[in-house]
Specification:
- This protein is α+β, with helices and mostly antiparallel strands and 466 residues long.
- It is 67% helix and 6% strand.
- It is built from 19 helices and 8 strands.
- The strands form 3 sheets. It has a 4-stranded antiparallel beta sheet with strand order 1-2-4-3, with helices on both faces. Strands 5-6 form a two-stranded antiparallel ribbon. A two-stranded antiparallel sheet has the order 7-8.
- The radius of gyration is 24 Å and the shape is globular.
- The chain starts with a helix and ends in a 9-residue tail after the last helix.
Length: 466
């Protein structure tokens, strides 16, 4: 029986050139990412016209079809099932082509940021789920109800965060060419309770000291040690010696150096974030809110995930995400202004109606690539809206009212279940809502009056009657 997701997949496949043109298939939180043999075979206009497609993006690495969160995870396996039996061979060829393009076109910084993002992005679903449960548990505790259930909810929500270092180590080794389980093994040292019995230079270590940054560093070092062992250890001894040396040498360096250094860096990140918003909150919020849309456009926003994760580990929530989420509010306001001003452009208004629900939930790519960026000025006025919303939340941070998120991933209205702060959930939610409304209002106003030139606003002449 055909489902809406299988129907969408079947509709997309011929429009991207058919099975023979598809080399690789992958997906992120919102996009179906395809490696194509020949992009000239893509019927982009027909693709954009599909009801489920919110937009398309083409970069050096892949052809990306924006389907939105949740939808993309269901459509991708349906799409893969439609490919020919040679899909595995084509996937390997596509991976080779992708690596070749990456070597030729990517700068070292962009390549590093993408690899760091690839380590943390797979963890986002668990962060979201545990964050929502943690928020629900906090609400129940504050209300003083279901007291017999709240300890169980706390355990469920905290289990993943207690062991997140292991998952970071596993993904790091996998991303950088090591054995994933060895990466997880050396990262597990960071969170092992027994480190409390280890004294380093007169100081007793604490379980979790260094957090995800320590795990990241340990797994990177472990991968280097493993590769060195593979080159020098005889094959007959490799299965015994290489894992032992990798875990032993990396574990010792982790205990006697990396945990302390990463712990200091993690503390510095937390201190800097708190200082930034409590001391220069309005200005910091303005700058962060204004710059986040360009980061999303370039795909570099994923590089902030380690910082968010460090803050969540350390403080229970990240104070940066609610500020950055204001960029999406500015984008929504700008799109609404375009919708009101360009009454004659039915195609663009249809795009806005399709993309707006995702935008309200913090998924900005459809509105960025389908509305504001192609028009030019609305992208800048959307950034102005984000700056205003960020300044609003930053201003309250200066007053001592911190607004944070217990997980990363969602933003917009979807962030409400994840909100946390230091002054109670009601005030925290009110400040965040005020920031959203400010972003909407400024994004709308700036776009309505300054975001569209006269030629864009004027209705095209009606064709002469025959």
């Amino acid at each position: 029986m055909r489902t809406p997701d299988s129907t969408t997949a079947a509709a997309i496949l011929p429009l991207v050139g058919g099975p023979a043109n598809v080399l690789t298939v992958a997906h992120c939180m919102t996009r179906l990412r395809l490696g194509l043999r020949d992009r000239g075979l893509v019927d982009e206009d027909a693709l954009r016209a599909l009801p489920a497609v919110l937009g398309v993006v083409a970069d050096d690495d892949s052809y990306q079809i924006v389907l939105g969160p949740g939808t993309v995870a269901r459509v991708t396996p349906e799409f893969e099932a439609l490919l020919t039996p040679t899909a595995e061979r084509l996937a390997l060829r596509g991976a080779e082509l992708k690596a070749d393009r990456t070597r030729r076109n990517a700068t070292p910084l962009k390549l590093l940021l993408r690899r760091v993002a690839d380590i943390f992005v797979p963890l986002i679903p668990a962060l979201i789920g545990c964050g929502v449960i943690a928020g629900l548990n906090g609400l129940l505790v504050n209300l003083g109800v279901l007291t017999g259930v709240t300890p169980a909810l706390a355990a469920i929500a905290g289990g993943f965060m207690a062991l997140i270092a292991v998952f970071v180590g596993y993904n790091t080794a996998k991303e950088f060419g090591g054995t994933p389980i060895l990466g997880g093994a050396v990262a597990a040292v960071v969170v092992y309770a027994g480190v409390a019995k280890v004294t380093v230079f007169g100081m007793t270590l604490a379980p979790g000291q260094g957090g995800v940054l320590g795990a990241l560093a340990a797994a990177l070092l472990g991968t280097r040690v493993e590769k060195w062992c593979r080159r020098w250890v005889p094959r007959s001894l490799d299965v015994l010696v290489t894992p032992t040396l990798t875990v032993l040498l990396t574990g010792l360096v982790t205990l006697y150096a990396l945990m302390y250094a990463a712990g200091e860096l993690s503390s510095a990140i937390g201190t800097a974030a708190n200082w930034l918003l409590s001391t220069t909150g309005a200005f910091a919020g303005l700058v962060l809110g204004a710059l986040f849309l360009p980061l999303v456009m370039l795909g570099l926003h994923q590089a902030l995930i380690p910082i968010h994760t460090t803050l969540i580990e350390q403080q229970g929530y990240t104070v940066l995400l609610p500020v950055l989420a204001m960029a999406g509010a500015g984008q929504v306001g700008a799109a609404l202004a375009v919708y009101v001003r360009l009454r004659h452009d039915t195609s663009l208004r249809t795009t806005i109606r399709s993309a707006l629900p995702a935008g309200l939930l913090g998924v900005g790519e459809p509105l960025i690539y389908g509305v504001s960026l192609p028009l030019g000025r609305p992208f800048l006025t959307a950034c102005a809206g984000g700056a205003a919303g960020g300044a609003f939340i930053g201003f309250f941070s200066m007053l001592g009212d911190r607004v944070g998120s217990t997980a990363i991933g969602p933003s917009g209205w979807a962030l409400f279940p994840l909100l946390s702060g230091n002054r109670g959930l009601g005030l925290t939610a009110a400040i965040y809502a005020g920031g959203l409304l400010t972003g909407y209002a400024v994004g709308f106003t700036a776009t309505y009056f300054f975001g569209l030139d006269r030629r864009t606003r004027v209705r095209p002449p009606e064709p002469a009657a025959a």
